[in-house]
Amino acid sequence: MTGRILALKVTGLLLLFGVAALAAPHDEQPASLQQFKTSIHQYVQLHRQIEEQLPPLGPQSDAQDIIESSNAMATALQIARAGAHEGDLFTQEVGVLLRARVTDALIARGFLPEEMVAATLDEVDEDAPRPIVNGRFPWRRGAAMWSSVLAVLPPLPQELQYRFVGRDLVLVDTHADLVVDILRNAVR
Q1: Is 35 exposed, middle or buried (0-12, 13-18, 19+ CB in 10 A)?
Q2: Which partner from 69, 95, 112, 115 sits 20 to 30 angstroms from 150, CA to CA?
């Protein structure tokens, strides 16, 4: 009887571990992606703390009020993140992952990466400055975002958006028109 109970226990454990092994790959995210999400969360917490300190916009706010609010937000974020540089959020590891996702999404839809880059360059004002981390986002430089690519990128809170400028993926704080990070050559 003890041999049979032992065999049942071993079989049960094997089944349990087998199910866990099958479920694990689907439930786990790469550590780089988890770190990216943590960094996004930390940035948004900072954004919201600063936003709470600024005078709120009211229903009577005009365009000038909105511009002044955006400028105040950008200045406060620039001061708070004075040491910000490329790769703070788009680390090397997450960069590898996102570049592969972008390429796969384009190919799956039948596009060549060069086609996307060419399309984004069509709308560029060459006199506009290039985006830099902790600088204002140059909307005249281009602001393309393909939905097929957006679908494979990690979701963002409402304060942030992805934008392509040429081959580069730019993370933009839309309330402050501020460049949070840049992933160079996101489109190979």
Answers
A1: middle
A2: 69
Q: Against a cut of 0.70, is the pTM above it? A: yes
Contact 187, 102 (CB under 8 A): yes
In a domain, 37, yes or no: yes
Closest CA to 91 of 137, 134, 172, 34: 34
Total domains, the chain: 1
The 10 Å CB-count burial string (b at 16+, else e) for 91-119 is: beebbebbbebbbebbeeeeeebeebbee
Q: What's the Cα-to-Cα distance from 48 to each of 85, 88, 168, 173, 175, rounded to whole Å?
A: 21, 19, 27, 11, 11
Give a yes or no: residue 121 inside a domain.
yes
**Interatomic CA distance for residues 188 and 173, integer angstroms:** 25
Write down how long the chain is: 188
| Within a domain: 16 | no
187 is written with which tokens?
């489109």
For 114-148, write each residue's pLDDT tens digit: 777 777 777 777 778 889 999 999 988 777 788 88
Instruction: Print the domain residue range for 172.
Output: 30-183
How many angstroms from the chain centroid is the CA of residue 98? 9
For 85, phi and psi rounded to 5 degrees?
-150, 165
Name the one residue in this structure whose structure tokens are 């990466």.
113
